[in-house]
Amino acid sequence: MIKRSALPATFTINRHYPAKPARVFAAWASVEAKARWAYCDEAWKPQLHELDFRVGGRERAITGPAGGARHIFEAVYWDIVPGERIVFSYDMHLDARRISVSLSTIEFFAEAGGTRMRFTEQGVFLDGYDDVAGREEGTRIGLDNLERVLREGLDRGELDQTETDRRRAAS
Amino acid sequence: MTDRSTAHATFTIERRLTVSREKAFRAYADPRSKARWFVGPEGWERSDHKLDFREGGRESVSGGPPGGLIHYYNALYQDIVPNERIVLAYEMHMDSTRISVSLGTTEFKSDGKATRLVYTEQVVFLDGHDHVAAREHGTRALFDNLAALLEHEAQAT
After folding, report:
1. Do A124 and B76 touch (CB under 8 A)?
2. Which helix or strand (DSSP H or E) is residue A89 part of?
């Protein structure tokens, strides 16, 4: 018999990205863009990733280590303001066990040299799966990946006007 | 153009209910029972209450003071453990404006023959609409309704 528990926890991560809010937002808005950075571990090949990015739309991703537990992410989008805000709720399963339900808010603010992005997770961790620090760490890894993807885009010449201006001013 | 902002908050409400947790849970799971206590203040008009109580199911109701703003509640059931726990996500609209999105966790804990109900809401208020004190106040009023209904039913049997 499972011993039931529910631990609420909140964490916030702030990041600066060297790209305009519209580009950072776009990294969340399609399955092609999101697949480039959203999995915690590059060795985790997604078995499935579907994203219907609109209010009321759903997202589903199944990943995990080869031969290990399947990490199943299922989300519903509640609020989308293009270039400015995304609110979604999601749950995580490890194989058949639901380990958490969360509400995530992502905000995009234009600032000098790019975008400040604020990620807030309000989660409830279930039945002893209360590794809040691990969830935050996994989220940070994803956001690190996002920074790398955005910088690779810049190196390939996908410069934003803000970045072009900054480089011109610096030279 | 709307000036975008968010305010995140968490509040917890505990209630001791004088019935078993099976009965307390039934007041959430049974659409007719839920519609009796999940109602706005005295004098408000309201729509039909719709409840599909299962994981992935939806609940919705709208209402408000006569001639005033329509308050619209729209929920999605995320996790249901019979007699033990309910986790749902919900949004509130005032007329056509989305004012908040919340995660609501209700735990039912046995306390002798009674039930200790623990409700935790994690909420993000959007664009300066509503605030946590008012939300908590409104939610406490719902639990007053629930406690009164269960008390009434216990005395009737």
Report:
1. no
2. strand A85-94
pLDDT (tens digit per residue) in A73-120: 999 999 999 999 999 999 999 999 999 999 999 999 999 999 999 999
Superfamily of domain A6-129 in the CATH hierarchy = START domain (3.30.530.20)
- B111-121 pLDDT, tens digit per residue, is 999 999 999 99
User: Chain B contact for A139, CB < 8 A?
Assistant: no
B window 8-67, beta carbon within 8 A of A: 8, 10
State the angle between helix axes of B132-156 and B21-29 in degrees (0 to 180), rounded to the nearest 10: 120
- Compute the average pLDDT of residues B58-78: 96
Residue A8, chain B, CB below 8 Å: the answer is yes
Mind listing the pLDDT tens digit for each residue in A16-51? 999 999 999 999 999 999 999 988 666 777 889 999
Contact of A98 with chain B, judged by CB distance below 8 Å, is answered with yes
Quote the CA–CA distance of A45 and A4 in Å, as a whole number: 31
- Residue A150 corresponds to which tokens in the numbers above? 């955005």
- pTM score of the predicted model: 0.93
CATH class of B6-156: alpha beta
A14 touches chain B (CB under 8 A): no
Across-strand partners of B125?
B7, B100
